[in-house]
Description:
heterotrimer, A: 2 helices, C: alpha/beta, 54% helix, Meth_synthase_dom (chain B)
Amino acid sequence: MNIKSEYYQTWEEYKEENPIVSDEGLKADKIQNYEELMYKFIFALFL
Amino acid sequence: MSKWDHLTKAVGELEEKKVMKILDKFISTNPTDKEVQEVINTCHKGMVMVGDIFEKGDYFVGDLIFSGELLAEAIDILKPALRNCDSIKKGKIVIGTVHGDLHDIGKNIFKSMAVAAGFEVYDIGIDQPVSAFVNKVKEVQPDIVGMSGVLTLALEAMKDTVDGLKEAGLRDDVKVIMGGNPVTKEACKYIGGDAYTTNAAEGVKMCQSWVG
Amino acid sequence: MADIKQLQKDRQQLFTDLYEGRIPKRVPIMYNIGWEAAIQLAGHDLKQAQWDNSIVYDVYDKACSRLYGDLAPVAMTLRNPMHYQMLGAKAIIMSSSGQMQHPEIACLEPSEYDEFIQDPYKMMVDKLLPRLYKALDVSSGQKALTLGKAFKAYNDENVFYGATIGKIVEKYGYATIVTHGFGEAPFDFLADFLRSFSGINMDVRRMPDKVVEACEAITPHMIKLLVHMNPNPSILKKGFIPLHMAPYLNNKQFEKFYWPTFKKVVEAMVEAGQGVDLFVEHDWMRFIDYLADLPGRIRMRFEYGDPKIIKEKLQGKHIISGLYPLTLLKTATKEECIDKAKELIDILAPGGGYMFEFDKSALSMDDVNIDNLIAVTEYVRDHAIY
C-alpha cells in the first residue's frame, strides 16, 4: 500500500519534475531519505 | 407512566435526533417555568438510565461521553426558556483534576452525571494545586470533594490534596471521593479518602448515599 | 569486559529465542521506568533536566546501577520539550509538576472530513499543524523557518540521546531491541490528535461513513510508518503500536470502526516480516478473540485483564507480557509484591510465549517503592523459568 500525497514524492516522481545536476555519483537514496525523515517528523507531531 | 417517558427513553437510548426533535417541539409551545423544569428533570432521569446501563455493562465510556454531550445540548435548548432559575440542589460537590495531571474526560463524565442527579458541581479544572482545592472548599463549603487523575503520579497528588484539606481544618467537614484509572482500594487507604471508583455512575451513587 | 559482552549475548539470546518461537533459558525481563522517573531517581529537577541533554548519561547511569533489567530499564524520553517549545505546542504541554502530557484537543472539524480523506498528509501540513502548534500559525515563510529549526532540534536531540544510550548499553551489557517504526491503529490516529477522544465518540454516531473513510485514508500512512520507513524489517525489531480507543467503544462500533483498518496494518507488518509490539491499554478482554486471530507472533503487553483467559486464548501463538500492577509496588509489602510475580509467572510462563513486564511504566519514582521494584525484578531474574 503506497501513500499518495501532493506533499510527498517518491524519487521517481521527484526526478520527473526536477533537473538532475549529474547522474554520476548522485546518491538518490540519501536525497530521498530527507523526504522520508521530514514525513516521519510531521507524523511524529501527531503521535 | 408519565407523559415524558418517551423523552426519558430517548435520552437513555442516546437517540440524539429524537431528543432534539422532542425538545424543539416542546420549546415552540412556549412552556411555563414549571413545565421546563419538568422536562429538565426528565433529561436527568434519562441520564440515570444511561448510568444504570453502563453499570450493567451494556454501555461503555464512549457512550458516557456522548451522553454528557447530549445532556449539554438539551440544557442549551431548555435553560434559555427558564425565566427563573431556581431549583433545589441535592448537595454540593467540588471536583478537579489534581496537580500534575491534565486529563479530564472522566471528570467531565462524572460532572454531567452528578449535575443530572441534582448536585451543584463546582469544577475547578485540570492540574489543580492543593491550594485551589482548599480555597474552593472554603468558599463554597461543599458536602463532597472529588479528585480525578489518570496518571499514576496523580495518586501522590491526591494524597497531597487530602493532607492539604486536613491542614486547613476542612477534612472532617467533607466526604472525599477519588476517581480515575490508577485508583485502587490500597491507594484510597494510602491517600486518606472516603471512597474511590473507576465508574462515574457508581461514584454518583456513592455521593447520593452521603447526602441522604 | 568479556563478562559484560557475554552477559549481553546471553540477554540478547533470551529475546531472540522468545521472538523466534523457542523457550528461552529464563523469562526475559522487559520493563523500564519513564524518563521523568529516572530524572527524579538521579536527583535532578524534572522541570530543568528535560531541556538539558548533558545530564542524560548521568541519569541512565544512576538508574542502571540500581535497577535490574535485561534491556536498559529507562525509557528514552517520549516528549522532548525542545521541539514542542519551538513549535508552540498546544497538544503536548508541561504540567505544573514538569510532566509532559497530552490534554484533550481537536484540530479537525467534523465538517472537514472530506478534505482530510482526499489528502491527509497535505491537510496535516497546511491546516492541522498550525492549529496544534501556535508557532506554525504564521506566514508561510515564518512557518518554513520554524519547521526547519524544530526539525533540526528534534533530530539533533534524538541522535544525542541515542548515542548516549548506546554507551550505557555497552557499559551494562544490555540486550537491545531496535525500534523499526511507531504508528497507531488508524482509528486511534484519528482520535488522538485530530478529533480528540470526545469528538470521535460523537462522530461514530453522527457521521459513521466519514469515520470509516477517514480510517481507510490513514491506513497506508500507518503501514508506511510501521513497515517502509526504515530498511530491513525484522521480527527481532520493534514496530510499536499503543492501542487506545477500543475499550471506549461498544462491540458493534469496534467491529465497524476500529478493527478492520487496524487488522490491515498488522497484516501488512506481519507480511513484511516486521515484529509487532502492541501495548494493549486498559481492558481488551471483550476483544481477546480478535487479538488471538491476528496473524504472526505478536508481542502483546496487557495493562488489565484476566491472565488465565489471556494465556488460554493466546498461548502457542502470541507473546504475552504486562498484567503486573505497577501500583502494587507502592502499596504492598515486599513479600506480597514477589508473590504477585510468582502468581503471574505460574499462569503465564508454562509453555513459553511470555516475558515479564509491568502493566505500565512508572512516570514518577513516587509511583513505586524502589526496594519492591528491585526485589521483584531480581526475583524474576533469579527464579523465573518456563
